[in-house]
User: What shape does this take?
Amino acid sequence: MASLLRTFFSVILFLLSVMFTPAQAQLRVEISGVGASQIPVAIASFANEAMAPQQVTAIIRADLERSGFFKIIDAGRVITEETPVNHAEWRSKGADALVVGSVQRLSDGRVEVRYRLLDTIKSVSLSGLTLTGQPQRTRLLGHQIADDIYEKLTGVRGIFATRMAYVTRAGREYRLEVADADGDSVQVALRSNEPIISPAWSPDGTKVAYVSFEHKKPVVIVQNLVTRQRTVVANYKGSNSAPSWSPDGSRIALALSRDGLTQVYVTNADGSGLRRLTNTYGIETEPRFSADGQSIYFTSDRSGGPQIYRMSVHGGHAERITFKGSYNISPRVSPDGKTLAYISRREGGFNLYALDLTNGQELRLSDEGRAESPSFSPNGKYLMYATGSGRRGALAVVSVDGRVKHRLTTRAGDIREPSWGPFMK
Assistant: This one.
């Protein structure tokens, strides 16, 4: 049992024992991979872009480039959504699609962005939107247009208008920060002189559950991001850790050591109705709900080393899921329930793997040897995780097929514990 405890705590220490340096608020994107085939898209400058505080076409272009699935062609001129277009001209330039539009400043001070997406191959309009918002929300309008383009051209919902949460430390201060999916528009949700770990978004995107050490022990707290109201969900004897939400947002799974060794529990989102799921002589931790909410994936050392298991949300028999490698932790389930992502220690390094739950095929998605805290994008096409080199941490994003890769870094500092937020309604 002592060896099992050492194994468990080595995982915790690996996740927590990082050297921090002061971080800047702005994240920088470094693209290092692209998709197997890219769709060529020409993007024209929108008319009157100077009326908005940010250039909308630059936001759209950066989003599509970062996705890895588009080859961007600079149209080299301004084209509005009402300008007649010679589709043959754009086909001759190698563009399968053309993005055009305009920006206006309304009398009430809001910004209005109009755009059209044209199919130059079929010479038809694929989509068009008119979006309005306050000037400070110009970036969001650009992200929403990029999402529409991504969906119309790939058939998959875009994730550019989603948000992420992560933890930084500046000096002796820990910060829970929320940013756009591209690392911009950073907002501080919480400042603390004690560690913050394991942020997890509620399905409606209004709350984040996390573990705070402000009580000199790990305590699970839910914070409303709009009102900033904080609710203590679990502050039992011993360790309270690893919160995750049910798909409907009504329950939270977590790991507690209140009765001895760490075990898996489920509670209502307000902390009431606590119910224990596992009852073993091992360590059971890192619970995650399945996509349909009927099962719980979790890490257990009941087989002699950390492996990932699945059991009914009502408890009972647990089925082992991972068999390759002797050390597999941090299970994360894709939104469609078909893929399990996790961290595996092999050949002396920790890397991100994805397991196809329908056929058992496994794919290694990282090669840095320092991967931790994976999180699926809400469309299931990407995974974000923490990595780094030396004392500096970064957030990496990789597509589930491993082809598209990019990093979000700060010029100075350390960022950890990423959690990708849900689609916003």
In short: Residues 1-25 have pLDDT under 50 and may be disordered. The domain at 2-27+161-420 is CATH 2.120.10.30 (Neuraminidase). The first strand starts at residue 28 and ends at 31.
